[in-house]
Structures are given as C-alpha cells and as structure tokens.
C-alpha cells in the first residue's frame, strides 16, 4: 500500500511550448500520461507541448535514487559539500573507485556561499570525517579541484557514472555535460541534482539545450528530490 500511495502523489513536470519555446510547470499525478496540449500564458492560447522528462519517481528518501546507479563502479561526485551524499554512495553502491571532487577554498575562499556561513575548511573536514565512517572508504579519492579541470585529466569512457552537483549555472552546466559525454562510458549514466526550472533555471535550460544538440541522449528519470538521470537512448 505504501508504494501505491507514492504513485498517487502529484509531481511538478516541465513542459515546453511548441510555439514560443517557454517552459511551463504543470503538476500531475505521477501515473498520468503526458499532456499533449497546455495553456501557454505567453502565447495566450492552448498550444501543443512536450513534457521534458520521460518518467518520474517518488521516494521517501533521497538516497533511494542511488539504487538506480550501477554498483561496484568507477564513479565520481562533482560537488561534495558536506559529504552526506558521498557517504551514502559508498554504502549503497559499493564503488570500485569513487572520486569526490570539490574546489572548496579554491573557488569560494574561506567561506562557503550557503546561508549557514560555514567555512570551506569546516565543510571539507566534515566531508572527510563522514566518508571515513564507511566500510568502503578505501575506494575514495578526494580531489580539491574544479570539476572541469579534474575531468580533463582522465581518459574518455573512464567513468561508469558521474553525479553532477556544482554551480548549477547555465554556462558551467553546458561545459560539464560536454566533458561528461566523453568521459562517461557509452552505456553509463550522467546524473545530478537540482533539476527544477523555478529554482535553478540555468541548469535546467542548459540541460535541455544540451539534449537538443545531443539527440542520442535522453532525460529519462527525475525524482521528488530534484535528482535526474541522462542516458543514451536504446
């Protein structure tokens, strides 16, 4: 019954107007079929539209998303912050090699940008302490570097999957996705956090623009914690 109740919940889906190209958020029950027409305020009429994601899932924990990622893999988390997700990656996916990549003080100086006003060294220390609690910690390599610099140091088709959670800006996301296309294996996964047009328009717009230019990939899943997965079309 718990699974049934999750499927009856509502989820905000993004639709793209076929006429003006604007993105409109529409709340639907997760089991509903995509709408073929929507009311576009910019066009001031009913228009044909396409839903921008193949499917969504509801979970009771952010960590359940990790069940969709390959286990015993070579993987990376780009943007580690406090290391909470990093610990769960180690525990749930049991990676062969796991790269934790964050520029910390290289990018932000002594203080992070978040509302808690915590120091970058404090968050780095918390991340290292958190991941050392995992029995799989020996698979971890911690890299203090910009993710775009880090990725260029590795061969093409090196990673089984990569989780992207960095600046969420339009410009950075386009560069990151272009690099990940080469660095992640053809049968691998590019995934990340904060897919929501109303909260992070830069990332969301860049992601769909990249998909428009790389039609052999598709955005195939999002969850209620704003996490997303891109894969090669099959």
Task: Give the secondary structure arrangement, pairings included.
Blueprint: H1 2-7, E1 10-17, E2 23-29, E3 37-40, E4 45-51, E5 56-57, E6 74-78, H2 84-93, E7 97-101, H3 105-108, H4 120-132, E8 140-143, H5 147-152, E9 159-164, H6 170-183, E10 184-192, H7 201-213, E11 217-223, E12 228-232
Parallel strand pairs: 5-11, 6-7, 6-9, 7-8, 9-10
Antiparallel strand pairs: 1-2, 1-4, 3-4, 10-12, 11-12
What do you see in this structure?
- The longest helix is centred in the C-terminal third of the chain and has 14 residues, at 170-183.
- The protein folds into two domains: 2-52, no CATH class; 63-216, Vaccinia Virus protein VP39 (Rossmann fold).
- By secondary structure, the protein is of the alpha/beta class.
- The chain has seven helices and twelve strands.
- Helix 2 packs parallel to helix 4 (120-132) and helix 6 crosses helix 7.
- Strand 6, helix 2 and strand 7 form a beta-alpha-beta unit.
């Amino acid at each position: 019954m718990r699974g049934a109740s999750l499927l009856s919940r509502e989820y905000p889906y993004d639709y793209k107007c076929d006429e003006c190209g604007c993105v409109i958020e529409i709340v639907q029950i997760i089991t509903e079929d995509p709408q073929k027409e929507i009311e576009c305020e910019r066009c001031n009429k009913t228009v044909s539209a396409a839903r921008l994601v193949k499917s969504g899932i509801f979970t009771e924990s952010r960590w359940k998303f990790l069940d969709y990622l390959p286990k015993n893999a070579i993987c990376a988390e780009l943007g580690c912050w406090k290391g909470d997700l990093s610990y769960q990656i180690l525990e749930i996916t049991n990676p062969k090699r796991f790269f934790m990549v964050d520029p910390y003080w290289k990018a932000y100086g002594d203080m992070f940008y978040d509302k808690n006003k915590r120091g970058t060294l404090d968050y780095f220390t918390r991340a290292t302490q958190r991941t050392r609690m995992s029995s799989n910690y020996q698979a971890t390599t911690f890299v203090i570097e910009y993710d775009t610099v880090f990725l260029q140091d590795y061969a093409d088709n090196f990673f089984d999957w990569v989780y992207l959670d960095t600046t969420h800006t339009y410009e950075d996301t386009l560069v990151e996705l272009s690099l990940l296309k080469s660095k992640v294996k053809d049968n691998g996964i590019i995934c990340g956090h904060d897919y929501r047009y109303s909260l992070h328009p830069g990332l969301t717009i860049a992601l769909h623009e990249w998909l428009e230019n790389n039609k052999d990939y598709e955005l195939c899943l999002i969850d209620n914690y704003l996490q997303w997965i891109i894969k090669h079309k099959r």
